[in-house]
Amino acid sequence: MVIPSLRSIGRLRTDYRAVRAGATYRTYSTHPPNARLNVPIDYGNNSLLHQSSSSIIHSSLDYPQSSPTTRLNLYQAINNALAHTLRTDENVLLFGEDVAFGGVFRCSMNLATEFGSERVFNTPLSEQGIVGFAIGCAAQGMRPVAEVQFADYVFPAFDQLVNEAAKYRFREGNTGGHAGGLTVRMPCGGVGHGALYHSQSPEALFTHVPGLKVVMPRSPAQAKGLLLASIACNDPVVFMEPKILYRAAVEQVPTEAYEIPLCKAEVIKEGGDVTIISYGHPLFTCTEAIAAAEKDFDIKCELIDLRTIYPWDRATVLESVTKTGRAIVVHESMVNAGVGAEVAASIQEGAFLRLEAPVKRVAGWATHMGLVYEKFNIPDVTRIYDAIKQTIEY
């Protein structure tokens, strides 16, 4: 029997009196009234998403310059890329748990109907089996796209990815054997209520493994180009999709097929005072923090999207930090031994004499993902804003 302490009883009694007195009492995590920084992201007006055809075509040479566009959200862009590659390459297979039914996030909707059950099919509930089967297919010259239903469930397949897929080419030596046509897709990251087993971001675990590429897109247009490049890649690719963006992120996406180069970061916004490096969904949080900091402190921030987390684009990051003299790395996964630690160490090695302040990391706390307090675990606008302020004032 657990006996509550007197302090706990007193706190409960105080809370109860406050409720009876008509005070606002929140038992969930959200922004407080009159909040200035930590407010819900307005994806419809966020600069990372292109709301017109001209905007996306002129934003980057990664996109086809003469293609018409259509308005898609992230899961529709994934579906569009999968449909294209299935249509144009008979060696592509798509499989996973519930994939033939469209998948839990609808990324494979209607693909089984169009391409048949021999190329788009369901598998048993076995992540180890799914990835092991995919490696065998890739070793025989196919281009399998295996879906792990949630990144949180990839751990039974960890041995297959690390000890088989990543080592296959190295182990085969001069025989020419490899599993390079393998792509493993998985939804990742927080959604506000996923808790222990539906909100994890395990990308750092894979970035320690030579032989794998690890990719995470930030938007529908980026997802289409990066996924097509991943499927075409002759190395095994772990393709991680921020599931909070599946429906939230909507933008104009070129209808033509295109590939965005892997292992190449993108400077989304140029600036001269501080470099902010991130990837995936936290980029949206970064843009909100940057807008507030630039207004309050009269500075210009440079924002970089790594896109490929491993092997990552050191040259672009070091060039930026050499120019600005300050760096902040932001990611959703835990801060301990995370991507930010590797980026920060590389900056210290490659741009130490140009640094005006210590490299900061803003990341998830070193704890498991909670339920109602999930929002407090991952970087928010205020934490990034404070990091910018502390860095420029150092």
What's this, in brief?
This protein is of the alpha/beta class. The protein contains 14 helices and 14 strands.
Please give the order of strands in the largest beta sheet: 3-2-4-5-7-6-12
**Cα-atom radius of gyration:** 22 Å
Helix and strand run = HHEHEHEHEHHEHEHEHEEEHEEHEHEH
Largest sheet: 7 strands, mixed
- Please tally the β strands and state the result: 14
Total DSSP helices: 14
Relative helix content: 25-40%
Mean pLDDT: 92
Instruction: Please indicate the percent range of residues in DSSP E strands (runs of 2 or more).
Output: 15-25%
Helix/sheet category: alpha/beta
Per the principal axes of the C-alpha atoms, what is the gross shape? globular
Measured between the Cα atoms of the first and last residue, the distance is 51 Å
The low-pLDDT segments are 1-20
What are the SSEs and their pairings?
Elements (H helix, E strand, L loop, with lengths): L5 H15 L32 H7 L9 E5 H15 L3 E5 L14 H5 L4 E3 L4 H13 L3 E5 L10 H8 L2 H5 L10 E6 L14 H4 L6 E3 L4 H13 L4 E6 L2 H4 L1 E5 L11 E4 L4 E5 L3 H16 L3 E5 L2 E3 L3 H11 L2 E8 L4 H13 L8 E5 L16 H12 L2
Parallel strand pairs: 2-3, 2-4, 4-5, 5-7, 6-7, 10-11, 10-13, 13-14
Antiparallel strand pairs: 1-8, 6-12, 9-11
Helix pairs in contact: 3-9, 5-6, 11-14, 12-13
What does this structure look like?
- There is one protein chain.
- The chain is 36% helix and 17% strand.
- The protein contains 14 helices and 14 strands.
- The strands form 3 sheets. A 7-stranded mixed sheet has the order 3-2-4-5-7-6-12, sandwiched between helices. It has a 5-stranded mixed sheet with strand order 9-11-10-13-14, sandwiched between helices.
- α13 links the parallel β13 and β14.
- α11 crosses α14.
